[in-house]
Amino acid sequence: MQRKDYLQNPVEHMKITAPLTVDQLMRQFSGSGSFGAGRLAAACDVYEKMLRDKECTVFLALSGAVIPAGLKVLVSDLIRRRLIDVIVCTGASMVHDAIEAVGGRHYRSSWLVDDHELYKYHLFRIYDILVAEEDYIRLDYQLAELYSKIAEARKGEPLSSREFSWELGKYLSDPQSILRSAYEMDVPIFMPAVRDSEFGFIHWLHSSQQNRKNSLVVDAFKEVPEICDICNQSPRNGMIVIGGGVPRNTVQSAALASKKGMDYAVVITMDRPETGGLSGSTLKETISWGKVKDEADKVMVIGEATMVFPLMTASVMERLGAEFRRQPPLLLEGAST
Amino acid sequence: MQRKDYLQNPVEHMKITAPLTVDQLMRQFSGSGSFGAGRLAAACDVYEKMLRDKECTVFLALSGAVIPAGLKVLVSDLIRRRLIDVIVCTGASMVHDAIEAVGGRHYRSSWLVDDHELYKYHLFRIYDILVAEEDYIRLDYQLAELYSKIAEARKGEPLSSREFSWELGKYLSDPQSILRSAYEMDVPIFMPAVRDSEFGFIHWLHSSQQNRKNSLVVDAFKEVPEICDICNQSPRNGMIVIGGGVPRNTVQSAALASKKGMDYAVVITMDRPETGGLSGSTLKETISWGKVKDEADKVMVIGEATMVFPLMTASVMERLGAEFRRQPPLLLEGAST
Amino acid sequence: MQRKDYLQNPVEHMKITAPLTVDQLMRQFSGSGSFGAGRLAAACDVYEKMLRDKECTVFLALSGAVIPAGLKVLVSDLIRRRLIDVIVCTGASMVHDAIEAVGGRHYRSSWLVDDHELYKYHLFRIYDILVAEEDYIRLDYQLAELYSKIAEARKGEPLSSREFSWELGKYLSDPQSILRSAYEMDVPIFMPAVRDSEFGFIHWLHSSQQNRKNSLVVDAFKEVPEICDICNQSPRNGMIVIGGGVPRNTVQSAALASKKGMDYAVVITMDRPETGGLSGSTLKETISWGKVKDEADKVMVIGEATMVFPLMTASVMERLGAEFRRQPPLLLEGAST
Amino acid sequence: MQRKDYLQNPVEHMKITAPLTVDQLMRQFSGSGSFGAGRLAAACDVYEKMLRDKECTVFLALSGAVIPAGLKVLVSDLIRRRLIDVIVCTGASMVHDAIEAVGGRHYRSSWLVDDHELYKYHLFRIYDILVAEEDYIRLDYQLAELYSKIAEARKGEPLSSREFSWELGKYLSDPQSILRSAYEMDVPIFMPAVRDSEFGFIHWLHSSQQNRKNSLVVDAFKEVPEICDICNQSPRNGMIVIGGGVPRNTVQSAALASKKGMDYAVVITMDRPETGGLSGSTLKETISWGKVKDEADKVMVIGEATMVFPLMTASVMERLGAEFRRQPPLLLEGAST
């Protein structure tokens, strides 16, 4: 590079007037450095491109407790407008969703409360969010019943975690539920570690009270071709990662195994790369594997997701218009049904 | 506490429609958990309270390279509307400001460039921001001349870093400059580590070419009573901290030394408390010292400042109205002049 | 508390002479603050207590890429001396182990290499560690053959991930392999997200070439009672967590579901609590759930595991003596076989 | 690079036997990945090289509260053996040292105590370390008296912060004190933000009770040529950075201003680069400025300093032998006296 090539893009200082819409602020962010604001502005651009690309399947990899913290309705709205086509998440996220769908609630409290007192009160803490054991128990009873019905209908035929998610969505009637919304919209939800959640423990309670032969079976590997086929059949693929962990790895591996490589990628995380963990690994690193293409539109936002993701979606929705709805890529339909 | 006391504040899930103004989004954030969005919403509320409190002096503690990254105009606008009353910052921040005020620029690049090539090109890197050595040199020449004038006018009488800042502001004519804006608006700028910047190195070059007796002298301790008097004379005090380090410590220590304790506090940082460093220390910890009052409105936002601070200011400006201007607390005038 | 109660434990400054054994240094660390050294010293004490408690089952929750980075032999040695009784890990960790067991290697490189060049060379990067695609392929062939044998022997009967791990261990002959060591020593290895790894993708390739009916089936939920029974039948339980994610959650949930609560806990992580993610959540938070007992010996070390965990083990091995071997708690035997 | 060039250095798995000396463990670390252990092993090598280089001046940049947390004696021992030649630190670090030198103590407590109760008890908290206000007051009285004596002796001639440090060291008699040890060993201590500490506040109290003309004056800029001359006259320079902030910037800037560039560099920090702050900036970035040479031996250890720094020193002392003492580079003597 020549010296002058480095000096092409002067920083444009933000000018904050009021009122600004979210997208107007993101436009101000786009001329700044990549410390945080510049990355967030770039993430809005990447998400917008994914959505305007009619042949792109949009994956959301979701970890952490962002659903109980306030993102449930945002995610279900994105599903209903098909601004997300596939979800890969922890079992816990969908447990949180299901708890609210059957009438439970999450409560804001403080991270400095007396945890032993909470223990005595049967209140569980997730940072500053509380949930009552009774809300878990209400869910447990309903799940046990549902498991019996599924097992009976399936006659021992194992489900994938995606099929299991849709069974849950079919059962739950709350229109704000992510599981319900995904079921209604044919959006697959994969839970590669579904066993590591209340869904797994209820299965244990349920099957120990009955003849195990009649219990529901989730085949751990059955979902692998399902998600790989989606990647494979879609002309282009994009991912938005919240957090990291197994969901991020699963989405990236699907892109690798299907020999496609992501065309668009946004990662929102607070993790750092130096520990060698997947969650903090850079998008640059994914190129070596073929998980994300070298030429992909991609950016990593170092920030907390309940702050960053709504900013991104509010900005992009503003660009696309309130009425914007997407149709999923044609090839996907076959895969998800 | 009773069990039911913990269950008073159910999470209100965000509902993102478009377009949303920044403040409308912050209102959506206020019902969520304190992972990030909830803290940011709380920070907007605290800043609004500071500004509506006519007897509160608002301190901005500024570290890191946020000025070259895009916050220069935002900060100078805040000064001109007196939404900030006092600044405490590193010398480097004001060097960045001065470089642009005398015609230099900062450029957006990448954090993955070849640093040895930059070295050969005399381009300096701050994460993804570049600045050319020639822009430093242009500043150097002007500073050397200015130092002579100040030294002559002062006749050996030492300056505080605050007086030095105002001398810089008097000299610079760029209305977007923070130093200039502060000078025009009687906003004191303290640089407790002023020596650790180009201001210090120019002094060395300048004084080594001349009879040292005639050189400008900055008295390191002279500013201590100046900032303590401001805290002391103000009925109430509030601080906004970007980053941490010496600026945060200086502001907090002024609140301690003047036996006032901050009444309002917002800290924006990515540092964590476990290393024992000041930058990541919690606001809870400051209570033990009397730096921040136990009953103060206070919140720490774990996030990057070029993203968080403009969000906060856009939201609060929207609440206060485009025409909102503050008058500094009366008692401050005597202190700063 | 009285004022004097706070002033009982003066900091004892470290005195570094040479040579010091690792444990001698840890003893020096024990008088210091809890920024890092004090926490590490406490972690040594907790692990020592776990090991000296003849009725304690020791769980290791393992995430991140610490096995290819250098901890493989350390972990297999711990298994062979029964200083670890149960492992819960990602599928990827055991893939890394298996790759080396069938003759592959991991290589040290740099995190600043050209990832597109690596892609063209079929070299995959994990931070600064490289692994060649050919080593994956060698494993793939062997796994495909093994899967057929297992499927045939099982006649459609699903395996738990623990049974699957032991099948792998039975097959691999490398005595330094973790999978092999665990198989020989009756140490269960649970992989709750086993599908999210090469083990899952090989299954896809394998089963797509054959009659699916004859393929190996891993029942996602089958391991739940297995791990809960271990917790339940053991008089006391302790956990060492490296990283976090699904492995940490699985171990903690087993303690919760079996209504035991961990009696000892060491968490080694770089994650922070404010995002609400499980990996960075505090041990204090686990008390509210009953995952860890309020009165448990517990400590969280904020540090990177390839540095922290060997320090801990070297220190504790020194205390226990080179010949120290543990017998697992009696009740465990029934559970793990 | 050829493909085979990437595959030259297979990971050597650590083998932990007992007892191991610290250096034996570091040797085990040297074959592992650069997640943490590999970086620490590299840092030991770099520090060893600095010390074996008879023409290298070793700078220690010190921030954070590591002195009260347990590193005081370690640092003063390093000074007495001249394993450190120059210190640059915050004022607070030397206040902590001075408090203990006049009979005060720091106490280990918890980061979860009631800070309002501490406030009422006049106990100040630094993460889990407590210090009593009375220990500050004892120091204050002695400093006020000392300031008068210095002012009288100096007759209005301003001091640099380095001269001020030596005046403190001359006054304090505790042989374990860092200030005392540095004074005895002619090791310069620079405090570029000396005003931001109890040293500054005492100055205010002291001078407000007296005729200001007779008060001690610290010239903020006077130290600039002092530290630059040391860099300039030393054939080679090395730095060890604990934390970051102003001390790191000051050392790096001295290397830049003297047109030398560091030949060796170890940075120990938990900060990350993406915020653009100096503390987390990479050593790669410093190359663009000429602060550290492209060809320098350099490594950044992502870890907490009270854990990492003693490990490094114990390992290196073991390599050099218990009797190893260094002579400072000859040229330094003139500069520091």
Q: Can you put this structure into words, describing what you see?
A:
Four copies of one chain form a homotetramer. Chain A has 14 helices and nine strands. Chain A is α/β, with parallel strands linked by helices and 337 residues long. Chain A folds into two domains: 1-55 and 235-320, 3-Layer(aba) Sandwich (Deoxyhypusine Synthase), CATH 3.40.910; 90-226, 3-Layer(aba) Sandwich (Deoxyhypusine Synthase). In chain A, strands 6-2-1-7-8-9 form a six-stranded parallel β-sheet, with helices on both faces. The first copy, chain A, has a three-stranded antiparallel β-sheet with strand order 3-5-4. The longest helix of chain A has 22 residues, at 133-154. Chains in contact: A-B, A-C, A-D, B-C, B-D, C-D. Chains B and D meet through helix 5, strand 4, helix 9, helix 10 and helix 11 of B and helix 5, strand 4, helix 9, helix 10 and helix 11 of D.
Question: What's the structural blueprint in terms of helices and strands?
Answer:
The structure is a homotetramer of 337-residue chains.
Chain A: H1 22-29, H2 37-52, E1 56-62, H3 66-80, E2 86-89, H4 91-101, E3 107-108, H5 115-120, E4 123-126, E5 129-132, H6 133-154, H7 161-171, H8 178-184, E6 189-190, H9 198-208, H10 223-233, E7 236-242, H11 245-257, E8 262-269, H12 283-289, E9 292-302, H13 305-320, H14 330-336
Parallel strand pairs in A: 1-2, 1-7, 2-6, 7-8, 8-9
Antiparallel strand pairs in A: 3-5, 4-5
Helix pairs in contact in A: 1-2, 1-13, 2-13, 3-4, 3-8, 6-9, 7-8, 10-11, 10-14
